[in-house]
Amino acid sequence: MRHTLSDYSIVLALVAMLLDVVTAHTKLYFVGTKDGMHPRRKFIRPSMGNGPIRDLNDPLLLCRSLGMDPKRTEIMPVVAGTEVIVEWHHFNDTKADNVISPSHQGPCLVYMAPLESNGLGNSWFKIYEQGFNVERNMWCTDIVRENHGKLSVKIPTKISNGEYILRPEIIALHNARRLGEAQFYPSCVQLSVTGATGGSPKMYSIDKLYSPTEPGILFDKKNGGASYVIPGPPVYSP
């Protein structure tokens, strides 16, 4: 049987799709500061894996963790105003690791909640967001990949001292033109914050952060990133 160029093109496309599936996922491996990163997964709640959450009503959207007992995870001390560094990887922390597939572009968002809430109810406030950088023509995920998985986030000073959950999240938009196909990659870190001066951020429930039809969740990446609107509530800025 003779094979046409079209046949080979289809095979190559299928192979590319399979490779994309293999290299797609990501999870948080490390957390630290400019003074150094802590050992692997220290202070990070146990992850159920590196796969995404798609259902906005899924309880796993909270932390993508089956270990929701706060006592199972150590608490990282941090001074308010410090830049906390989180570091994602796909399979491991070697230089060969691709962090997340290049096709899985999208925004990065970071939330905090009082640890005593365990993330339930109206307890979350956003402290960071980055979508599409027009000047660099790069999504936040591109920049994270460029930085070998690292993202730096400043802990607000105008909050109360105490223990918190820090929830970094990547949203991959490669299939987001279809309803329910945006991919969410949240993880949770436990912090103890000192040196804060007090404040009252408006808080939101995790299951009310996003709507499946809002422009930042239902989005055709082919339209370009310049028009992208980052989903969720505004960043807390007292």
TrEMBL record:
Task: List the cofactors.
Answer: Cu(2+)
What span is annotated as the signal peptide, if there is one?
A: 1-24
User: A Pfam family this protein belongs to?
Assistant: AA9
Domain Auxiliary Activity family 9 catalytic, residue spans: 43-222
Q: Which GO terms describe its molecular function?
A: metal ion binding; monooxygenase activity
Leading EC class: oxidoreductase
Catalytic reactions on record: [(1->4)-beta-D-glucosyl]n+m + reduced acceptor + O2 = 4-dehydro-beta-D-glucosyl-[(1->4)-beta-D-glucosyl]n-1 + [(1->4)-beta-D-glucosyl]m + acceptor + H2O
Q: Which residues form a coiled coil?
A: none
A Gene Ontology BP annotation from the UniProt entry: cellulose catabolic process
| InterPro entries hit by this protein | AA9 (IPR049892), AA9_LPMO (IPR005103)
Subcellular localization is given as: Secreted
What the entry lists under PANTHER family is as follows: ENDO-BETA-1,4-GLUCANASE D, PUTATIVE (AFU_ORTHOLOGUE AFUA_1G12560)-RELATED
UniProt lists the family membership as follows: Belongs to the polysaccharide monooxygenase AA9 family.
- The name of this protein is lytic cellulose monooxygenase (C4-dehydrogenating)
